[in-house]
Please model this.
Amino acid sequence: IVSIGLQECSHKDEWIECIQNYFETIRRAMSLPKQTHEMVVLSTATQWGITLVVFVRKDLMPRITSLCVDQVAAGGRKIVGVAVANKGAVMISFSLNGSTSLCFVGSHFPARAERLSKRNKSYGAIVDDLHTRPKIRKSEIDPEISSKTQTSVSIFSCDHVFWVGDFNYRVDGGRGGMVFLTLTSFLFSCT
Model:
């Protein structure tokens, strides 16, 4: 299982194709059989410039249930009554083997040091909203996956959560301050 998160990307289809070509190149170079090592797109989630793609080995597809895709807009504005935001998060979650739930989140938070409270507020909204209104979407490979079990999935109820993104948090203090913090942290961890 491989998940890729993209932010501010307007060429997601080209990226997905390049990644699939990469997987195929590796499979061939390692002489792995296609029936057990072919990587396919399980699902994609996109909101404005935020994209999350989950790839799985094709032979895992029958063991995947409860596919759930959701998104949360954070910030932005309304255009003709529709919320448009280039910040927020997208989520893809599913169960593997009926017992292990996996959740993948891709996010993009507000930038600039003075927007710390906005970033924290965005995180809170994302955590609160991702599980309240999941949108069930069919797998791009197997249309039956989403209909096997259609349950709402909270990111905190999943066994494993993988969160990637452009968080835009800043560490202030300049180079000297960062070296001091790193050395101090290292020294205290050794005692």
Confidence is low (pLDDT under 50) at residues 147-151. The helical segments are 12-29, 34-37, 116-129, 145-148, 174-189. The radius of gyration is 19 Å. Strands lie at 2-6, 39-47, 50-57, 64-73, 77-79, 82-84, 88-96, 100-108, 160-166.
